[in-house]
Amino acid sequence: MAAPALAQNAAPYRDCTALPPNLVDNCGFEQAPVGDEIVPGWGVTFGDGSEPALTLGPTTELPHSGSGVLVFQPAGGNDPDTVTQSLPHLQPSSTYQFGVWWYGGVVTPESIPDSSGTFDAYVDGVVGGTQYAVKKTSEDTYAPGWSFSMVNFTTAASGTPRIVLSASGASTYVRVDDVAVAQVPSAPVAPTNVSATAGDASATVSFHAPANTGGLPITAYTVTSSPGGLTSVGCTSSPCTVSGLTNGTPYTFTVTASNLAGTSPASSASSSVTPAAEQSITFAQPETQTYGTPFTAVATSDSDLPVTFSSTTDAVCTVTLSGVTTFHANGTCTIDADQAGNDAFLPATTVERSFQVDPGTPGAPTITSVTTASGSVTVSFTPPTETGGSPIVGYLVSAGQRSQECDASPCTVSGLVNGSAYEVSVAAQNELNTGPAAQYEGTVTPLATQTIEFANPGSLPFTMTANLMARATSDLPVTFTTLTPDVCTVTRAGGLTPVSAGDCTIAAHQDGDDATAPAPEVDQTFSITAVASDAVRLSEGWSGDTTVSIAFAPPVNTGGAPILSYSVTARGGTAPVTISCAGSPCTITGLVNGTAYTVAVVPVTSAGNGASVFYRGRLTPHGSQTISVVGAPESGYTGTSVTLAATATSGLPVTAELGDAGDPGACSVSGLTISLLTPGTCVVGLIQAGDAAYSHAVPVVVSIVVTTAPASALTVPSGPVTTGSDQTFTASGLLPGTDATFVLHSNPIVLGTVTVSSTGVATLTTALPSGVTGSHTVIVTGTSADGTAVTLSQGITIADPAATLPRTGAPDLSGLLVLAGAALLVLAGAALLVLAGAALLGGAVLLLMTRRRRAH
After folding, report:
1. In the β-sheet with 411-414, what is the strand arrangement from edge to edge?
2. In the chain, at which end, N or C, are there fewer CB atoms within 10 A of the end residue's CB?
3. d(CA 184, CA 131)
4. Is residue 237 part of a domain?
5. Neighbouring-strand partners of residue 566
6. Looking at the domain assignment, is residue 806 inside a domain?
């Protein structure tokens, strides 16, 4: 075991202000007035007695050491009187000893016998719970005289331990003195944060001291290399040096710390470093340099490795790695020379050299403009881009032999002779040098000044011309120009001509001569007022349905103002009718057809109504009308007629006339009925000539192609067909748009009714009736192309699809029906016998066609 941290006689009084780390003492017992119930540096909790519970006793209380002692004398009750002190400065996870001197009973005037009181001295907030140095119960007997009690405890990884002194019981009387806490000595923990720097056959190792020194001072640190196991000698603090290493070999290092109690574990190893030979740089001091001149820094290393350069004054100079230096301003230029080393050589110590850079010559300014005045010239310019490394302090501007110094642009040189030509230049100056001059191209000539006197002529009417007057103070002639050509024009001599109403602005000029500068332009603005417009120029007039219209050209002279509108008046009815229109042509509506009107036009401007003009004759409105026709066919057959339904919107009658464009004899006209006579083209014109209130209508032409009506025919499927099958029947030569009905005889069965197409064909596709077989007749009734009724018939044989043998014998004609006009002819049970050759015709087709003319 380690030696005790506290001996029974090793707790003397200590001054609170000089208390060493890891110690707690009863210094407060000596600091307060005698009899005080407050213990400096300690926390006090009183019990439930009514008398003073604890005090700092007088010297008669015989302290163990020093002049003060803590006295417990509870007045009674069960709550203890307690004195505590926190120990925040103890190291975590470390072992300490807590010791206390205590004395039970009084010294004078008499002894107090053992009582039922208690007294405890302990440490809490530590590993393993509360650790008691003293734990006297009411059954324990007080030992006579001073006693020393001690206990070891271990601090936790976190938290704050606390000393507690506590007494209770009415007859308890306890003195306490020389309370102390000290760390139990042990070896320190390992150092941390180890790092190494290589040297020439050596390395310098830095580290942090152990967080826990084991309660004893560190007596030595030992640094050990790997490989080789070489160690530092006589090192008591960071950093430590290890010598005897081999240059070019990588090494890592560990560190141990030692005190009187032992040596710590080795630290974590440092990063690897490689010792190398030292080298030094030779860098001669540069002389003063001038801005704008070339300079290259030169330095060498005794290792023969290349030296690199850098600037620490970039505002004055910059340098490349190889030493090429660029100056940016005058001042002090500082350049560092470095050699970074390699496997055999350590980095060289930086060598720094500073030298003066004097200003150079500035560049030439740039002249931007040169202006003259009477006896002077003013030069404007921009500073040079190159200042010579020093700020520009001024400029020297020259005009011939005269010059002027200025701080900035512009700069004026005075005292010149008007009319004389001068060469102009400007040069920049820094604090040491004047740069080259910038020369203005050509020469400049100062001129005398002049002004123009130009009075405002006031408002002028549009119809008035004027001669403007102005005078120059130089007595040179003044000229004029217009700034508002849309309003007015002016001659150079001042002859003014209005163009339109508005604000007219005239500028007066005097351009100077060899000795006189141009005068400042003088402008005068005055009004050109509008007058009434001239009359329009009429060109054409016409009438319409309750309207008259007039066309015209605008006035040649509008009085200086734009035309706002035109006022047009028609007179001839019960009251004049006036309208306003924007331009030609103008139309007046709402007039009475058949009434003659006179028409007048007046232009209107901002100046009012202009001159009026009347159309040369009267205009009479007429209603318009159109012809419409219904039922006019495009084609028709000879022998038929067409009656047209033609009307006019006026309600007046429409007549029809044969047109010259048709074929002669193709048709004839009677009223609105057209008779189609021979093939060709029939052309008829429909006419309405108008009357007093209506103009004639545009004729409507009707054209009809006349053809001969085609013959009617019926087509049925050839050969035997089967009952119930779909078959197609076609009848041609019929009247388009009419109905055609198909019937199967002998026992009549209607197959269907269809509408005749535009080509005169009726087509029916349908299924034959089931169970009907044998020879039959298909009969079609309808209207032929020429409009007459027509009946068409055609025989057809229908077979039973289940029959296996061909049918023999005479044809059965019992079902044949022939319609002739309104009569029905029935041929039943008879055989048709052809006499010539006595041949029997079976299944023959009989076509009987009967036509009846349609009455007209």
Report:
1. 366-373, 376-382, 411-414
2. N
3. 15
4. yes
5. 581, 603
6. no
Q: How far apart are CA 93 and CA 244, in angstroms?
A: 39
Angle at 397 between CA 394 and CA 399, to 5 degrees: 170
Q: What angle do CA 82, 83, 88 make, to 5 degrees?
A: 130
Give the CATH number for residue 632. 2.60.40.1080
Of 287, 310, 289, 309, the C-alpha closest to 299 is 309
SS3 for 166-201 is EEECCCCCEEEEEEEEEECCCCCCCCEEEEEEECCC
Q: Are residues 291 and 401 in the same domain?
A: no
Q: Rounded to whole angstroms, how far apart are CA atoms 135 and 194?
A: 48
Query: Looking at residue 320, which CATH number applies to its domain?
Result: 2.60.40.60
One-letter amino acid at 473 equals T
In this prediction, what percent of the chain has a pLDDT beyond 90? 56
Q: Cα dihedral sign for 475, 477, 481, 487?
A: positive
Q: What is the mean pLDDT of the chain?
A: 83
Would you say the pTM of this structure is higher than 0.85? no
Residue 825 has pLDDT above 60, yes or no: no
Same domain, 574 and 665: no
Is the bond into 12 cis (omega within 30 degrees of 0)? no
Query: Residue 830: pLDDT above 60?
Result: no
> Are 131 and 247 found together in one domain?
no
Longest CA–CA separation in the chain, Å:
193
Query: What is the chain's Cα-based Rg?
Result: 70
Q: How confident is the model at residue 56 (pLDDT cuts 50, 70, 90)?
A: low
Domain's final residue, options 663, 680, 707: 707
Q: Given CA atoms 728, 733, 738, 742 in this order, what sign does their dihedral have?
A: negative
In a domain, 572, yes or no: yes
pLDDT digits (tens, 9 = 90+) for 343-366: 889 899 999 999 999 999 999 999
- Which of 677, 707, 737 finishes a domain? 707
Q: Do 120 and 137 form a contact (C-beta atoms < 8 A)?
A: no
Nearest to 231 by CA among 263, 277, 276, 260: 263
Mean pLDDT of 273-287: 94
Q: Are residues 469 and 380 in the same domain?
A: no
Residue 224 belongs to some domain of the structure:
yes
Whether the CA torsion 514, 515, 520, 521 is positive or negative: it is negative
**Which of the four pLDDT bands, split at 50, 70 and 90, describes residue 224?**
very high
592, 629, 679, 732 from 757: Cα distances, Å = 52, 24, 22, 10
pLDDT tens digits, one per residue of 132-182 = 988 987 777 666 677 888 888 999 989 999 999 888 775 567 788 778 887
* Structural domain for 743, as ranges: 713-801+811-852
Total of domains in the chain: 8
Q: Left, alpha or beta for 272 (phi > 0: left; psi -120 to 50: alpha)?
A: beta
The rounded distance, in Å, linking the Cα atoms of 799 and 721 is: 6
Q: For residues 662 and 351, which has the higher predicted lDDT (pLDDT)?
A: 351
What distances in angstroms separate CA 117 from CA 110, 112, 140, one per listed residue?
Answer: 18, 12, 9
User: What CATH number is given to the structural domain containing 234?
Assistant: 2.60.40.10
Kindly tell me if the per-residue pLDDT of 831 is higher than 50. no
- Bigger pLDDT: 44 or 509? 509
